[in-house]
Amino acid sequence: MTEPSFLTAVRESYDTVAAEYVKRVPPPAEMDPLSRAMLAGFAELVRTAGLGPVADMGCGPGRITAHLAGLGVSAFGVDLSPKMIGLARDAYPDLRFTEGSMTALETGNGELGGILAWYSTHHTPPQWLPAVFAEFHRTLAPGGFLLWGDYVGNERLQPTHGYGLPVSYESHLLPLGDMAGLLGQAGLVVTARLEQEPGGRANRPRACLLARKPEA
């Protein structure tokens, strides 16, 4: 089966920028307080439910995966980029990191207590999001949680450079209501949302959605 072109572009681009990404993107300790609070709340919900591990989708160099582990959650990372996975394994050898795509996860039905999609879905064309969220629903245990966070808006970005280096990926920003609707169509129930206006390092609106897979 031929790989969708957007996946190839994302993989090649993040392989190119991996080392520079680590230098330029701040670690979790330097996140804004609201984002850290959402991650902490998500970790507590997953830990209390005790339904299985958390998959950090689009984990990059593994910093957020390690942050979740530090919050007492069993977590592993998944990323398209072999270079990113290599950096994550080198930095956090005690954690598990695997190459993979959110469009077709190598995880069994209902195996996950939680999924984190942290600034990792905006490279996915909107027509592919139903397939991605269907995979999230499939792999989550009944009662499991999803925390989604990303930029929101109504535009398609086609940068030629990222982190100072050439890239070929695109970014697709959708309104928050559209994202919540897509999660609902996949069978996930949104239980909380956070919207943040541009400020600090972020020059675009951002949002988080907490959702849960129904127990029945």
From TrEMBL:
CDD domains: AdoMet_MTases. GO terms for biological process: methylation. The keyword Nucleotide-binding does not apply. Keywords: Methyltransferase, Transferase. Residues 54-144 form the Methyltransferase domain. One of its GO terms (molecular function) is methyltransferase activity. InterPro entries: Methyltransf_25, SAM-dependent_MTases_sf. The keyword Membrane does not apply. This is Class I SAM-dependent methyltransferase. It comes from Streptomyces cuspidosporus.
